[in-house]
């Protein structure tokens, strides 16, 4: 098992199907609608569009992780030091946010809807609970993105 497998809660490649599907609400925020290419999850994700540009049709890898430590050791989620010389999972990604799961809802047929907030930027991930079973209510986590 690779070291990143111990910290990764979920990973898939998503294709952006729409930007701001319900209209642009905030000047510096885009809401991405995307579909997972492997697990066919549906994603709505707010990103700061001033620092990370994404276009409709882009493909990107999305990872949900419990820690940025490569050895899987827990971090306290408050003392991340971006200028540290210690390598982290974030080194391999273009855009990283930290947040908390605020709702996990279960629908019929084994579908789960996960809602998270990253400092007010929201994520909703909908998919088969077999692929999302590592994500628990009220847990702190990181979302990491890189374009493919």
Automatic annotation (TrEMBL):
The keyword Nucleus applies. One of its GO terms (biological process) is DNA-templated transcription. Its main location: nucleus. InterPro entries: NA-bd_OB-fold, RPABC3. One of its GO terms (cellular component) is RNA polymerase I complex. It comes from the Eukaryota. It is found in: Nucleus. One of its GO terms (molecular function) is DNA-directed RNA polymerase activity. Keywords: Nucleus. The keyword Acetylation does not apply. SMART domains: RPOL8c (SM00658). DNA-dependent RNA polymerase catalyzes the transcription of DNA into RNA using the four ribonucleoside triphosphates as substrates. Common component of RNA polymerases I, II and III which synthesize ribosomal RNA precursors, mRNA precursors and many functional non-coding RNAs, and small RNAs, such as 5S rRNA and tRNAs, respectively. Belongs to the eukaryotic RPB8 RNA polymerase subunit family. This is DNA-directed RNA polymerases I, II, and III subunit RPABC3.
């Amino acid at each position: 098992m690779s070291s990143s497998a111990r910290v990764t809660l979920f990973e898939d490649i998503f294709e952006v199907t729409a930007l701001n599907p319900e209209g642009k609400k905030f000047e510096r925020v885009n809401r991405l609608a995307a579909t997972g290419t492997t697990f066919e999850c549906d994603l709505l994700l707010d990103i700061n569009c001033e620092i990370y540009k994404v276009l409709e049709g882009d493909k990107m890898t999305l990872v949900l992780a419990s820690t940025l430590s490569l050895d899987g050791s827990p971090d306290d989620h408050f003392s991340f030091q971006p200028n540290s010389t210690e390598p982290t999972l974030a080194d391999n990604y273009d855009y990283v946010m930290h947040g908390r799961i605020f709702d996990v809802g279960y629908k019929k047929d084994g579908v789960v809807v996960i809602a998270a907030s990253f400092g007010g930027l929201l994520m909703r991930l909908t998919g088969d609970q077999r692929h999302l079973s590592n994500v628990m209510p009220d847990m702190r986590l990181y979302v990491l993105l890189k374009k493919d």
